[in-house]
Specification:
Number of helices: 7
CATH superfamily of the largest domain: Rhodanese-like domain
CATH class of the largest domain: Alpha Beta
Strand order of the largest sheet: 3-7-6-4-5
Structural class: alpha/beta
Radius of gyration: 23 Å
Strand content: 15-25%
Helix content: 25-40%
Shape: elongated
Largest sheet: 5 strands, parallel
Distance between the termini: 16 Å
CATH topology of the largest domain: Oxidized Rhodanese, domain 1
Order of helices and strands: HHEEHEHEHEEHEH
Amino acid sequence: MVPSCAEGGVLGILPGVIGVIQATEAVKLIVGQGEPLIGRLLLYNALDMSFRTLKLRRDKNCPVCGDRPTITKLIDYEAFCGLKRGEGGQTVTIPEITVYELKAKMDKKDDFLLLDVREPFENQIARIAGSRLIPIGELPNRLAELESYKDKEIVAHCKLGGRSAKAVELLLRSGFKKVWNVVGGISEWSNKIDPSVPKY
């Protein structure tokens, strides 16, 4: 149920402040001047505008910098972030549909399922008429409910498109043939198609 930073949002000034501090530390290390934060943890409290540092001891069992490191190279960030690779190492793209294309399908009364993979409380705040709610966390155990759409179209949406992309990937791996992810999710629907749908 925990949303990503893209879906849940982040107070932009916080990464801004921390980013400037990181850049300062990098310059100090490059020019060999000042006292870098090596061996110390800097804590920043934006509410009362305070900083404090904690001294850290080196962990001999640390998998990165310990006596016997087990992590010796950078991870594959595409794999870490859930982007699958196909044969030859190319990234597998998730089939997508714009809110304009979704609206056109609805206006033509095409036979498809509009699948909302958000949480029930989100669905109570805002919803697209005609959508069916199956939260992303429940989807793996409720695939049988979608069997009648195995050869029909399923269009999945969430708030911004992250969770629904995972749902589309799961459905494709489960044998569903025509599955689409709504780019920008219900937020984009509210912005471009139906402003009466509340934003949250």
